[in-house]
Write a structure and sequence with these properties.
Elements: E1 4-11, E2 15-16, H1 28-43, E3 52-56, H2 68-75, E4 84-87, H3 93-107, E5 112-120, H4 138-143, H5 151-161, H6 166-185, H7 211-215, H8 224-229, E6 246-256, H9 257-263, E7 269-278, H10 288-299, E8 308-311, H11 316-326, H12 339-342, H13 349-364, E9 368-375, E10 379-387
Parallel strand pairs: 3-4, 3-5, 8-9
Antiparallel strand pairs: 1-6, 1-7, 2-6, 5-6, 7-10, 9-10
Helix pairs in contact: 1-2, 3-13, 5-11, 10-11
């Protein structure tokens, strides 16, 4: 059985996902192509040997519809013989793409695969694919008694359940900005990015963000209807302790160890273990807790064996609840900043986390890294990579 190894990983800087953002005038196919092209340029691999490009995208409508992976690889100059497929596991889409690529290599179905992702939230606003429709269906609605809620309400319910104060949420968020700003200043992110247009940093990082500044923001998800439905919530989640909307792409080159040797490629890590779980769709974002346990159990590792964590910062409450349950050391979590500062371009975030994790392990001479992603519907992906 072949090992699945990571040869390289690259991302674009992340832009504001709204009109006026640095990538607002770039078609998502072309934005996606930037990461795919960079992967070939950086490794020198002949793209004709790529067996499949597996990509994540959440807003699969409009300019991101019609299997965007196929059009992006052609836009990147890959040969017409290279196939592509687009998957949707919501925010974990490109992390699931990485799992599929690794599984294909381990099974012997692939020698070389690319896992990637894209989201242009400026051109395909969040929720565009739903078009105002009830996508749950009547039977799911009946099962949960009408209790299914938007993610912002889930984030509030998590803060309430784990008794996370507004100050704790804001303190964590300020730390995310401080870490990200420092990482760019110290050049720690330069090696993992391919620049697009004139953007030379992640556009939503706010250097100097303070707890005092964040404390002045209003709750983002409170309205009269939700306040009536949940009278015990004291409304702690704001735009400042939530991830922003973003545009960006990322890509990871995965091969078998035999193919890497044959092609003269030097692996940087191997995909050690992976897991996916389902969890409560009302709390929704807590799946990262059982996913962490499941992937560690599968790997035969303990939390203490992990040198670095990438936990997607959809909301500060999600990361802090995960930390409270796992006991992980926050000094090892998102050490170069997380999505609250860097950004969360939905379909690209899983591959972005993998790119960040790989680089942190190398910078810190670590061995094992774990990334975990909360996803709509009460899902979560977890991945452990081992630096070579």
């Amino acid at each position: 059985m072949s090992a699945a190894v990571i040869v390289d990983a690259v991302r674009t800087p992340l832009a504001k996902g709204k009109p006026g953002g640095a990538y607002a005038d770039i078609h998502p196919v072309d934005l996606h192509a930037a990461a795919l092209r960079a992967l070939v340029d950086r490794t020198g691999i002949d793209p004709v040997v790529i067996d499949d490009v597996i990509s994540g995208a959440v807003g699969q409508v409009g300019e991101q519809a019609g299997n965007t992976a196929r059009w992006a690889l052609l836009a990147a100059g890959y040969p017409e013989s290279v196939p592509g497929v687009t998957v949707d596991r919501q925010c974990g889409s490109s992390q699931q793409a990485l799992h599929f690529a690794a599984q294909g290599v381990i099974a012997g179905a692939y020698d070389v695969a690319v896992a990637s992702g894209v989201e242009s939230m400026s051109r395909i606003p969040i929720g565009s694919q739903f078009q105002g429709k009830d996508f749950f269906g009547p039977q799911v609605g009946a099962r949960y008694g009408g209790g299914l809620v938007p993610q912002g309400i889930s984030a509030e319910l998590i803060a309430q359940k784990w008794d996370l104060s507004r100050a704790q949420l804001d303190e964590y968020s300020a730390m995310s900005h401080e870490r990200a700003a420092r990482a760019w200043k110290d050049g720690l992110l330069d090696s993992q990015v391919t620049f697009v247009n004139d953007l030379r940093t992640d556009e939503t990082i706010r250097p100097g963000t303070s707890v005092e500044t964040l404390a002045g923001l209003r709750p983002a998800f409170r309205n009269d209807d939700w306040a009536a439905a949940y009278p015990t919530i004291d409304w702690r989640v704001t735009a400042g302790n939530s991830s922003p909307v973003n545009d960006g792409s990322a890509a990871v080159l995965v091969t078998s160890d035999e193919a890497a040797a044959r092609l003269g490629l030097k692996p940087r890590a191997r995909v050690h273990s992976f897991a996916v779980v389902g969890d409560d769709p009302i709390l929704m974002l807590t799946g990262i807790i059982p996913a962490t346990k499941k992937v560690l159990d599968r790997a035969g590792l303990s939390l203490g064996d992990i040198d670095a964590f990438e936990v997607n910062e959809a909301f500060a409450s999600v990361v802090l609840a995960w930390q409270a349950e796992t006991g992980a050391d926050l000094a090892k979590v998102n050490v170069n900043g997380g999505a609250i500062a860097i950004g969360h371009p939905l379909g690209a975030s899983g591959a972005r986390l993998a790119t960040s994790l790989l680089n942190v392990l190398e910078q810190q001479d670590g061995r094992f890294g774990l990334q975990v992603m909360c996803e709509a519907g009460g899902l979560a992906n977890a991945t452990i990579i081992e630096r070579i």
